Amino acid sequence: xxxxxxxxxxxxxxxxxxxxxxxxxxxxxxxxxxxxxxxxxxxxxxxxxxxxxxxxxxxxxxxxxxxxxxxxxxxxxxxxxxxxxxxxxxxxxxxxxxxxxxxxxxxxxxxxxxxxxxxxxxxxxxxxxxxxxxxxxxxxxxxxxxxxxxxxxxxxxxxxxxxxxxxxxxxxxxxxxxxxxxxxxxxxxxxxxxxxxxxxxxxxxxxxxxxxxxxxxxxxxxxxxxxxxxxxxxxxxxxxxxxxxxxxxxxxxxxxxxxxxxxxxxxxxxxxxxxxxxxxxxxxxxxxxxxxxxxxxxxxxxxxxxxxxxxxxxxxxxxxxxxxxxxxxxxxxxxxxxxxxx
Amino acid sequence: xxxxxxxxxxxxxxxxxxxxxxxxxxxxxxxxxxxxxxxxxxxxxxxxxxxxxxxxxxxxxxxxxxxxxxxxxxxxxxxxxxxxxxxxxxxxxxxxxxxxxxxxxxxxxxxxxxxxxxxxxxxxxxxxxxxxxxxxxxxxxxxxxxxxxxxxxxxxxxxxxxxxxxxxxxxxxxxxxxxxxxxxxxxxxxxxxxxxxxxxxxxxxxxxxxxxxxxxxxxxxxxxxxxxxxxxxxxxxxxxxxxxxxxxxxxxxxxxxxxxxxxxxxxxxxxxxxxxxxxxxxxxxxxxxxxxxxxxxxxxxxxxxxxxxxxxxxxxxxxxxxxxxxxxxxxxxxxxxxxxxxxxxxxxxxxxxxxxxxxxxxx
Lengths: 342, 363
Hints:
CATH architecture of the domain at 17-252 in chain A: 3-Layer(aba) Sandwich
Number of strands of chain A: 12
Low-confidence stretches of chain B: 1-7, 353-363
Number of strands of chain B: 12
Distance between the termini of chain A: 20 Å
Radius of gyration of chain B: 22 Å
Radius of gyration of chain A: 21 Å
Largest interface: A-B, 58 and 54 residues
Mean pLDDT of chain A: 90
Oligomer: heterodimer
Structural class of chain A: alpha/beta
Strand order of the largest sheet of chain B: 6-7-8-3-9-10-12-11
CATH superfamily of the domain at 17-252 in chain A: P-loop containing nucleotide triphosphate hydrolases
């Protein structure tokens, strides 16, 4: 994994968002070292599509989401929204693009200002952008609150008076109010109870249909990602592993890391006993000094010499399913991760 | 138990919890966090306690451990550990149990370790408190312990601080600390919720292995039915401070009777489902524990609800399978239950729809 390439991108002009060779690095103090958060990642999104970004903590999925909206801008690479190169924009020009991209965060309570009324929190985007007059703004706020399932009559309350699930609904309303085309959802349901999580997932699905939104859905729970996504992109240590429609990819994961992620999910069925051999062993290598070649090779049961020498290129293994791996998993193959790490 | 090691010890169950109530006095009134919970746990077995936030599962485990702040606390009932009553013991008296008999691991491995104390010190602290050994021997034990929880280079790790370790490694250190004095019962309160799926699998696997090696009983507290499905012998589902269904794991998943358990399970997105399927949700939110509803506590959110549910609280009723109990007048899969669900469907499920809309603000 840990591969690169752009073979999986759709022709220029078709995609609404096109991210090419994205690189994000952070310097580590004055040591001269740097954290390679995202390394040469490419993907695209067409209008109304949801792409799920998955991987373990530290794989660069949140950084990718933030780099797309230029918070902070990437070190190199290109991010094009409707053909406009965002990395070339600065100041006012970039500001003018911002209402078309919104973000929803993981912790619904800390992402809302506790001292402001819910109605004002949601209206803030309209005020900043001077969209409409006071009356039409109030009507718009009422409308979005209604659509996300918050009674507008409670708009005068403050965030602490709402539950976690309701605060996440308010965050969604805030994101919707400027009528964006793209919303980056960074682990929007990870902090919620399962029952509330289901409500929010359904709500995001409804919003997507109603407003024709494109979503980048970042999460570590593969079952949640499968439910919401049209295509899923698996990342490891800042690199592309695999991309495909979830129904296809989950049935036959081609990248050993995708297989490891799928095997690690606890299944709510007591008949299926967890198997220790199929649990991915070892720790994530340091992103300051990532392994050469394929970055997953240190934990991969299929790794050969070539994996250390040559980085795999992205290629189409089945229709629509793209993988960056020298030795993709065959359908039905079992992998012994426990013995891969010595 | 048939194990010879325990022949000379107390014959009964390791832990017997009966009718435990844990209330907190607050300005708003008495919060009934745990309201009459009973269960027993045999040596070497695992019970999973499952429920949403605020159902009382964490308070229950802390109440059994005697770890709750004493101000405004009301604790009633009986907690017998190897036949000894724990509920009236002072924290000073509980010290004889903590570590060597009962131990606990918490959700957040960063805040449950002392950030300014080296790993080695944190592990040996417990060893030296309970076992009469010198420092060098305690460090040797600690090193072995870290090796057994699969931490590479244990000798080096003993000299490091918690922030130098990854989240998964920290949780493994917490497990090592908890296991240091060889407890007979381990409480694990959402031990893997803060971890990645792959790390979660590693940690759960490690806990299961340690448990069978040490013949240790475990109370596994989680909101994730997936986590307990393959790991627990028995599962208790809690709602609003009560156990609403309890059964051996295989029975619970095969033949759940409580609508709440069913709703909880069906709200989890499953890998086997196609993408974009609409998830079943539980409308509304758990009741206020100061003024809980009169009848069944789940009635306001239940798809099976009938008039009787709003008036009379159902008792824990045994089902036909041994060890299976539930609290419901119209259980899932029974003729009464199906008829109730059908009646609600006839009404256009308006009750449920109304509740979705009513999912607003508590007053």
